[in-house]
Amino acid sequence: MHASHIPELDALIARGSPERRVKTLERMTAFFLDGASRFNDDHVRLFDLVFSRLIGEIETKARTELSRRLAPLGNAPVEAVRHLAQDDDIAVAGPLLMRAEGLSDTDLVDIAQSKGQAHLLAISARARIAAPVTDVLLRRGDHGVRHSVAANRGARLSDAGFCTLVERAKTDGVLAEAVLLRPDIPPRLFHDLLLTATDAVQRRLIASATPETPSEARGARAKVANEADAPAAPRDHSRAQRRIEALHQEGKLDEAILVDFAHKSQYEETVAALASLCAVPIEVVDRLMAAERSDPVLILCKSAGWAWSTAKAIIMVRPAGARTSSQDLDAIHADFDRLSPSTAQRVMRFWQVRPHHSGRTTDDGRT
């Protein structure tokens, strides 16, 4: 093929039958696919010119087939790809919107701003999506598009995008769960959504689920959200904190010391040591320890990589520990074994960034 053949192509487009145009496109597509890995930029640009001229003169079925075959190619002709991706028929545009590397962020933004929900949904399935694109998807997209973006780990979200998702998720329990599972959600928005969505998420608790399932991760975080915010009688930990700080300075503060405090029923020292070793504010640890459920203790211990024996000692020193039967301990032990470290670490990171004030503090700094 040579550029001198372009006049012949023009004549074909002007006077050739639809069948002949489709046949020509099929031959050119096969020729390109066969040598795509060897063609240089000049070759690709020439194919781009040929495809672009034929695209407007062929029926939907042929355009759809061309789109499907070009979508996985890293060096697919850019103008042809752009033209096909802007097609109103999602059967034509869809494969390229989902996969084509040649589409720029600007192309995707333009299409997301002007096309319908099917086109937006196709874009939301891309392996990588830049924040400017997801901003448009979340602003214009429907329920399905929002859920697709939230579940797509390759989709980068801006602060504005996350705010849009969080606001929508407050009235959509399934979306809330997907958003809470994203590792890149800002802590303040995680906190905001978790507290708002707790009732909906708690209905999906995972008493018997495996820890790797999404419901386990969501349930673990939801169950302890209210525990961390539950009011508790203020305690004076200052003496215990001084003792723990001294042990820390001497390099003697470790899991064994923590277990020793718990076995000796030294509650304040246990709380202070747990807070120091887990890098969680002591007032948060105090509220977690005073809660009725033992789940927060399991999460702290699992995230730190400690053994069940450590978790058991801490559970028993809690105010509610005296009411814990052997059957309760068996069930709690099973929960501890099922809890995944990754789930526990995500929840603990949430606790670690909570305000370090003894009073209740809002996200804007008011107490």
Layout of strands and helices, then pairs:
Blueprint: H1 6-15, H2 18-35, H3 41-55, H4 60-70, H5 78-85, H6 90-99, H7 105-114, H8 117-124, H9 131-140, H10 143-151, H11 159-169, H12 173-180, H13 187-202, H14 214-229, H15 238-249, H16 255-263, H17 267-278, H18 282-290, H19 295-304, H20 308-317, H21 326-338, H22 341-352
Helix pairs in contact: 2-3, 2-4, 3-5, 4-6, 6-8, 7-9, 8-10, 9-11, 10-12, 11-12, 11-13, 12-13, 13-14, 14-18, 14-22, 15-17, 16-17, 16-20, 17-18, 19-20, 19-22
Task: Quickly describe the structure.
The chain is mainly α and 367 residues long.
Please give a structural write-up.
With about 375 residues, this protein is mostly helical. The chain folds into 3 domains: about 1-105; about 115-205; about 215-350, no CATH class. Helix content is about 65%, strand content about 0%. The chain contains 22 helices and no strands. It has helices at about 5-15, 20-35, 40-55, 60-70, 80-85, 90-100, 105-115, 115-125, 130-140, 145-150, 160-170, 175-180, 185-200, 215-230, 240-250, 255-265, 265-280, 280-290, 295-305, 310-315, 325-340, 340-350. The radius of gyration is 29 Å and the shape is elongated. The termini are far apart. Residues about 1-5, about 200-235 and about 355-365 have low confidence and may be disordered.
